[in-house]
Amino acid sequence: MKNIKILGTGCAKCKSTLQLIEDVAQAQGVEVQLEKVEDMKQIINYGVMSTPGVVVDGKVVHAGGMPTREKVLSWF
Questions:
Q1: Other C-beta atoms within 10 Å of 11: how many?
Q2: In what order do the strands lie in the sheet with 53-56?
Q3: What pLDDT, on the 0 to 100 scale, is given for residue 7?
Q4: H-run or E-run covering 3
Q5: Alpha-carbon distance 40 to 19, whole Å?
Q6: CA–CA gap between residue 44 and residue 48 (Å, rounded)
Q7: pLDDT of amino acid 10
Q8: How would DSSP label each residue in 22-65?
Q9: Each residue's pLDDT tens digit, 11-61
Q10: 53-56 and 32-37 as β-strands: parallel, antiparallel, unpaired?
Q11: What integer pLDDT is reported at residue 67 of this predicted model?
């Protein structure tokens, strides 16, 4: 199981990123645990200055703008 955190304050791109990750994981048959982190202090602690940010298993793998479907696939 992959632990994935979406870092962002709740903007449309953050919500779309969450949905994209859910869709790709489901299509690939990968079990994921998703968590939405909206607290700016926690986001900054990850070193992310532009949202949405994505953390997979404790490692920041994306920050700023929506990731592509292909990029999301590479996380699985």
A1: 11
A2: 32-37, 2-7, 53-56, 59-63
A3: 97
A4: strand 2-7
A5: 21
A6: 5
A7: 85
A8: HHHHHHHT--EEEEEE--HHHHHHTT--SSSEEEETTEEEEESS
A9: 899 999 999 999 999 999 999 999 999 999 999 999 999 999 999 999 999
A10: unpaired
A11: 96
For tokens 């997979």, the residue is 56
Domain spans of the chain, in order of start: 2-75
Give Dmax over CA atoms of the chain in angstroms: 33
CATH of the domain spanning 2-75: 3.40.30.10
Give dist(CA 59, CA 8) in Å, integer. 16
- Name every residue whose Cβ is closer than 8 Å to that of residue 61 and which is 6 or more positions away in sequence: 54, 55, 75
